[in-house]
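subagent[fold] <- orchestrator: predict structure for attached chain, return tokens only, no commentary.
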Amino acid sequence: MVLRLEELLFPSIADVAVLSVDVNDKAVHIEARSTVAGTICPGCGSWSRRIHSSYLRIPADVPSGGRQVALCLRVRRFLCPVISCGWRTFAEQMPGLTRRYGRRTERLRSTLAAVASRSPVGPVPAWRACSACP
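subagent[fold] -> orchestrator:
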């Protein structure tokens, strides 16, 4: 059985295309983007396919094989088709990978939460002491 790169790097996340992977002694650099044609406006719930712009988003991710992972996502901004909606433009989210205003991937958030919940010294010191925390 041959796995695609997307299935290997993002096994539980659909609609992600890996553009490039660069591995060196210290880090793994992954460039990816969404393959969805459009997304839903968070303000009014309307479907939009009209792209306004795009930008790079670099959320912190869990280490892999003792190397830091630098995840570089190409995120698109869409225009809301409803003129009366308060959201003129909005950024796409990748369910299972990112959330609005998030600086960490969902994988890293769940890893840190698991470490903090099992810590005898409490969640805040455990969060700071976790070696996976960027």
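orchestrator: received. Logging for downstream: The longest strand covers residues 68-79. The longest helix spans residues 106-117.
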